[in-house]
Input
Amino acid sequence: MTLNECLNEFLLQKKLDGVAKNTVHNYKATLSLFIRFIGSDLSLESLSYSLVSDYILKLLDGSTSKGTNSSYIRNVKIFLRWVYIEYGLSFDPLKIKVPKSPKKNVHIYSDTEIQYIFSLVETSVSWITARNRAIIALMLDSGLRQGEVCSLLKCDVDRERNVMKVTGKGSKDRMVPLGNVSIQLLDTYLNQCPFTNSPYVFLDRRGNELSGNAVRLFVYRLERKLPFKLSSHKLRHNFATNFCIDNMKEKGNTCVYDLSILMGHESIETTKKYEHFAHELIAVENSISHLDNALKAL
Output
């Protein structure tokens, strides 16, 4: 069997496993680069750790960022680990070391900045403006991903309990909180939307289910009006970090396990980065300047 044949089978298996389309597309794009470098017609028997190392060194010596390199190498490791289990290789892919991505703290929006974001959500169509404000609210206050926003169903919004059922990665359902302001913005949009027969909450100008690209485009246009960075993912990061901060101040605990469930993370280790960042922000906020006290008489 050739590497290219293995890739096709790997991608098919991921689809059958219910992996999100964007994730499968990402696997295909990154692994195609790897196979093109190694040789698509190379047999599994001929694949060596040395060849894989050559590809990794090429990545590390190139112009791509450390974060991108980590993602590419991680996908290669996942793919080769699957090949190793299914068909066998001359080496164990666990030997492949994935470099750590550089730590990047996400900007946490102040109350003033949040108000500014919403004030700039304007279009020439009033119901589209209301829709976009509701979308920003659900990503910022409930931690929804782009795809989860687009696939949200009207029947899954529970106003009595202030919760929503969303379908996340791997077609896995979970419950997420729904704040009072979000409910108000959501109802404002639904009352104005001219298309009432669709089961989906968010629709495009023609009454069709909203696409991820449409959300990405309007958030990008909104970002261009702002003096700081904005994206769907940054809004979700803000939700997670603020969840930890608010719980720490209210209960003395970040409740990171609860957050992991609300975020739909497979592993709590993914969620702990928000806990660490929240502790960092609280430590800075509570810091007392020793120098200020020492020199206060000056």
